[in-house]
Each structure stands twice: as structure tokens, then as C-alpha cells.
Amino acid sequence: MPNPTAAMLVIGDEILSGRTRDSNMHHLAGRLTEHGIDLREVRVVADDADAIEQAARALSEAFDHVFTSGGIGPTHDDITAECIARAKGVPIGVRDDARAILQAHYDRQGGTLNDARLRMARIPEGATLIDNPVSAAPGFSLGNIHVMAGVPQIFEAMVAGLLPTLTGGARVESRTIRVERGEGDIAEALGQVASDYPDLSVGSYPFVQKGRFGVNVVVRGSDVDRLEAAMGALKSHFPEAAE
Amino acid sequence: MPNPTAAMLVIGDEILSGRTRDSNMHHLAGRLTEHGIDLREVRVVADDADAIEQAARALSEAFDHVFTSGGIGPTHDDITAECIARAKGVPIGVRDDARAILQAHYDRQGGTLNDARLRMARIPEGATLIDNPVSAAPGFSLGNIHVMAGVPQIFEAMVAGLLPTLTGGARVESRTIRVERGEGDIAEALGQVASDYPDLSVGSYPFVQKGRFGVNVVVRGSDVDRLEAAMGALKSHFPEAAE
Q1: Mind spelling out the 3-state secondary structure of B78-102?
Q2: For position B34, which CATH number holds?
Q3: Domain containing A230 — which CATH number?
Q4: Which of B68 and A242 is assigned the larger pLDDT?
């Protein structure tokens, strides 16, 4: 059975303006690979209601899971929850369980659950809450869309809590060898290995380091014996390569 | 006149698998902001022909410019040029000017323009070449799609050559203040400033540092006087904030 598929939707003006370099994408990609869920697409859209709603709907229809990051805080530009509710065609309002979580948190912290913070208790109908061990305000799963915070510490904590509840597939393993030659010199041999091992993915990632060209060749697949056989074939082509 | 809009399409299994952390997105976002082109969306797709073609077509129809990164080298997994040609419905083949650039490069370097490398001279009909001062193999612009390499040094050099040829708009300036309070405590005042300055974008980017919550408030716009006025309003709300 093929692994479940996933997409990520990053809501973030600050990434599109170049102010912030995304880290949630890289984090989620690694965790999903470990969990046997294939991340097939990432979209980054602006804090724009139509853009969020349309992307959420398209990705939700195309993939088994959609993970979102950002836009669920208390400020005027936090519109993700409303947009996801609209994408799924369900109403949204303050929910008692989410309000109780926030109330308990601010009681402990000595803060006030004011109107702005109460917006973080707005949860679409039918959603399941995602625990936020950092700052209480929960994420939620609505159908196959998992809505999480953008602050990396909170996003990572939410992912850590959510993933064990999702069915994973076979873990995709990878092996890498580093060849200190131009990509054009090794392309023919790589193509041969790729066609001899159609069940594996053979990727070629060139780099420039200190003015010299080289290639990281990455082989991926879930059958470790096949991986090792492909690596053996690559090493016979490139005996000088480093693992 | 509103600024031109843009999207970026990153072709990269290695980013979706979590192996590599993208840097081209962050680089392009910064350069486009400086040039007055609004980056509205980024998509990262796998090295999959249908995914690349469909994303390229959708983004090309929705935005003034599409910038792609990755998949134009000499190996079997470099399929971007073919996919972009299909997305635009034009034929592709080895072009004499691209072949001459590669031949001159390998003559200089003492390498061979073998069949694999000759694939990098395949250019869709009607495209304009984008100069590659690092490793010769050119990118190209086909209509509003600008196709560039994925290796960061090459991508950045191509962007540096390409952007001056594209019409930019008003440069979007930004100002940031850092408020060491929870987002929920400042949300009401932020919302007020955002509604008083509808011509500006007021973004709120929370962070957790050493266990304490804070917010970077970023105001963006192309009218510097309005930006300074909004910053004055924010400072009167948050006199303790640091710029």
C-alpha cells in the first residue's frame, strides 16, 4: 500500500516579504519522512483570506493530509481558522473546551482572557483540538486539515503531539554518496542506476564548494536491501566517492 | 499603479524529503521586495512532470511573473525545461546559441560537451536565455516564466542578472518594533493602528525567546511618511518597545 500523501500550507506574509526564513517547512518535512507520510507539495500564501481558503480547499482535495502553519493567534491578521472553516463549509465560533483551556492558562499565568485572546477559542464545528503545550491556545484538525501555529517552538510541539495520532506508512530510508565531479560527467551512469532500480528514487543534487563542483547522489526507498544494492552499483561507477 | 505580482515554483524532492533546507525562496523574496515586485505565493513540488507542468501553468496564469528554481541540470531527474515548454505549449530542442555557450565553456575548462551536458542546451522555442556566470548552462525566460538553476550560487547569480531586465514597482519599505509582551495584550491596539492605516500592512509576528513571549510588529508600505506616522502611533501605544 502506498504511503499516505500530504501537503503543507504556510500562511506567511513575513516569509514572502523575505523578512523571515521559514523553518517549519523543513521541520515538518523531516518528521513526515520519519513517519512514512509523503510530503508532495508546499504552498506559501499571504495573509489573504481568499488565497488561504482556495489553497486549503485545493490541497485538501488532492492529498490525504494538509498541515498548515501560521495565522491562528489573537491579532487582526490571524484569519486562518475562519478561512479553513470556509474551505470546509462549516460554521466557526468560540468553543467551550477551547475557552476553558485558555481560561485555565491565563488563570495560572495571571493574565486576562480578553476579547483578543478569546478569538483563539474560535474553532470550526466538528474539529478536534491539537494540544499546545507551550502557550495553551490550541490548534485543530478539521477533516484532513491540521491547523497549527506559526511560531516554530509551538509548531514543533503541536506536530510532535499530532503525528502519533496519524497512520503512517513505510519509512522512507535514504543513502547519500558525495561525488567530487561535475554532474555532466556522472549523468549517464546515474541514469543507468535509476533505470535499473525503478522502485527507488535516485536524485542528483549538485553543489559548488570552494569553487569546485560536486554532486550529492541520494537514493531513497523503503526496501533497505534494494537501497544497499543500488548503493553498491553507484560505488562501482564512482569508486572515489565518499559516503 | 500596483506593483507587479510574482510567484515562485521550487522544484525539489530534496526539500520535500527534509534533506535540504531551501535558501532560494528566502533569497528571491528579499530581492523581489527590493525591486518592487510582490511575491504572492511559493509552491514547492516534487520532481514530477505533471506536478511541475500544472503548477507552472496555474501560477503563470495567476501572476505577472513566475520564477522557478531547480531541475535544469544534465541528469535524468532534470525535467523542468520540458515541463515548462509543455505548460506553455511550445516545442523544445537543442538550441544553437545555448550549445555554443556550453561548447565554449567546456573548451575553456577542458571538459567534454557529452550527451548529458547537451541536454542543458535544450531550450523551449521563443525563450530568452538567462546568463549563468557560474557554470555556463543558461536558464531561460519563456513568456512570464523565468527558469533558473537550483544550486544557490547559480540561482542567485541568475536572479542578479535577470531582475534589472524586469520592470519593478514602488519599493515596499518596512519598519519593525519589538514589543516584549504577549500578543493578546497588544492585539486591540494593533487592530486599531491597522484600521487607522488601511493603506499599510500591519503584521504581528510572535516569538518565544528564553521562555518569554514577545511580538515583532512589522509595518509595510511604499509611502515612507505614512509608515513613520503609523510607527509613531505604535510607539505611543507601546512606549517601552524597541525598534
Answers
A1: CCHHHHHHHHHCCCEEECHHHHHHH
A2: 3.40.980.10
A3: 3.30.70.600
A4: B68
